[in-house]
Amino acid sequence: MCQILDKIIMTEISKIEAQQLVVEPFHVDFTGRLTYGILGNHLLNVAGVHAARRGFGMGLLHSRHYAWVLSRLTIEMEEMPREGIPFTVQTWVEDVYRLFTNRNFSVLGADGHAYGYARSIWAMIDIDNRKPVDLTALYGDDIARYFTQQPCPIPKPSHIKPLEAAATPAATFPVRYGDIDINEHVNSIRYIEHILDLFPLERYARQRVKRFEIAYVAEARYGDELVCYVDASEDPVFTVEVRSRSAQPGAEEATACRAKIFFE
Amino acid sequence: MCQILDKIIMTEISKIEAQQLVVEPFHVDFTGRLTYGILGNHLLNVAGVHAARRGFGMGLLHSRHYAWVLSRLTIEMEEMPREGIPFTVQTWVEDVYRLFTNRNFSVLGADGHAYGYARSIWAMIDIDNRKPVDLTALYGDDIARYFTQQPCPIPKPSHIKPLEAAATPAATFPVRYGDIDINEHVNSIRYIEHILDLFPLERYARQRVKRFEIAYVAEARYGDELVCYVDASEDPVFTVEVRSRSAQPGAEEATACRAKIFFE
Questions:
Q1: How far does Cα B247 stand from its chain's mean position?
Q2: Are B180 and A29 in contact (CB < 8 Å)?
Q3: Torsional sign, CA A136, A140, A142, A145
């Protein structure tokens, strides 16, 4: 009875979490615009708040030995807001399948116009055995009641093709203290930052990143090296593969993530 | 007349800028506590808001061809707040001398207890000739009316001795896209992150950084390499010197910054 009542009084508003932000001085790159890394951080943060306030957040899950794992993140921006500009990040759940859920985002200016949108795909794992959890069995209607068909007018993530082993990596980053999150893995945002650091400043001076797609494949840990390969054959669209290589002698490289960067 | 009235109605409150924050999931290190880099970012951001709201912010200055330059930053924390914890950063001006001004900070919990404090020293330069500006001549009473003797019970910055040229740098970082700020220099916060990345994860697992001091000496630019030297002779206190080396053949190293890190 109480649940039915809840459903009746639930408005579209309550399905969407919104956070008002401002572009801080240290959140911009040398062009004076918000960076993809910081924006990614804002998106994931608002996602966490949305989930926590609706009863499926990380804190509650952790006590039940489940955790959300970010599988894909796609951000496409018509324009990146400049330093000092106030903006709002909105997030909502588009739908839930057995093994993953789609969460979308909009990045809006003070006048309501869209700077851009983002799409993300999440799975849930059992922390003890690292295996995926059946979301429909676990949540069913609990998440479904938050579905909303708020528009997210950017293409779904494309297939990012695995790269052939290239002769020379574009760069190698040893995993350091600042890369590691509370789960002792390289944090999702750091990959975005490392990948954007593969491109020379000159490119950012004459082009901007219109769209950034990343697919997370396997966790890298402290002690690993991140070996980055770049396919520039479709310039100004670049495919990047980051492989982690453990410090053990003879260790093979394992794909940590793949990304596709659309300059224009 | 209006100025006199302003002075009379000015309370201690209006001399202090405060910002309420929360420790976000991606703002913590693997121990689950706020990082020094992110905290430094918060401090500088609130400093900017304090200055802008009182008529001596970067935006206004830039139009007059002046800019604030951070010369020293010292942060000392009894404890770093954990993920999810709300906290407040306060900042105020302690005093102004001819060539520099002291700005202090407190980091307070929701119950008002202090997580820690920070001290910073700023100079102002003329953007055209990069020379320091006489602050007392430029501002005089305009800044002085905001002085407040709010307590900041941490020691003033110590002398950080220049390091002898060490045989081997602890690490070398090429300056990349993400390091560069809107002035096309390596941003102040990135030095803090690079310096903390010099220490192995094992140290952070058994010790914490109680105090972090940094003195900025000269700007590094894109194309430079940051060569980091560490003096570990006073372990658990470390002195770090970051020198920038331009890509030109035969280029000498120039000190970019020096830091002192107090583990406990």
A1: 27
A2: yes
A3: positive
Express each pLDDT in A195-229 by its tens digit.
999 999 999 999 999 999 999 999 999 999 999 99
Distance between A31 CA and the closest CA of chain B, angstroms:
6
CATH number of B1-157: 3.10.129.10
Distance from CA of B175 to the nearest CA of A (A): 9
Chosen for mutation from A22, A27, A80, A177 (greatest number of chain B CBs closer than 10 Å) is A177
List every span in chain A annotated with CATH 3.10.129.10: 1-157, 159-264
**How many other C-beta atoms can be found within 10 angstroms of the C-beta atom of residue A57?**
16
CATH topology of domain B158-264: Thiol Ester Dehydrase; Chain A (3.10.129)
> What is the reported pTM?
0.92
Cis omega (within 30 of 0) for bond into A236? yes
| Residue numbers in chain A where pLDDT is lower than 70 | 1-13, 57-63, 140, 165-167
For domain A159-264, say whether CATH 3.40.50.880 is its number. no
Domain(s) labelled CATH 3.10.129.10 in chain B stretch across 1-157, 158-264
